[in-house]
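Record type: monomer structure entry
Structure origin: computed from sequence
Chain ID: A
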Amino acid sequence: MDKKVIIQTENAPKPIGPYSMGVAFGEFIFTAGQLGIDPNTGEIVSGGIQAETRQALTNIKNILESVGSGLEKVVKTTVYLRDMAEFSQMNAIYGEFFSEGFPARTTIQAGALPKNASIEIEVIAFR
């Protein structure tokens, strides 16, 4: 029987509430939504939507790699944007992290995000 495994790594921001940064169950990995937080400072990176997108995806990459997975094994992403007008800027950076055989994706404009972030991204991946 598969057991739920809580994922923790120093290479991604510590959760800012009562949740895990990621959970593995069987062959699936589910990440919590990741903001563009620098794990060393605990603060949102400066530089706007592109810098925040890059940091959020780097945090996700680090969470996945800590349990032997990677971005190439992502099957689904959900992207929450504070402002849909920044979609093309986010999409440009997103395309740097994922190559052909892209994961399915949903993008939603959120009324507000924690820490006044511009973006939050969560993924489902395989080990």
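Annotation 1: Residues 48-65 form the longest helix (18 residues).
Annotation 2: The chain has one domain: 4-126.
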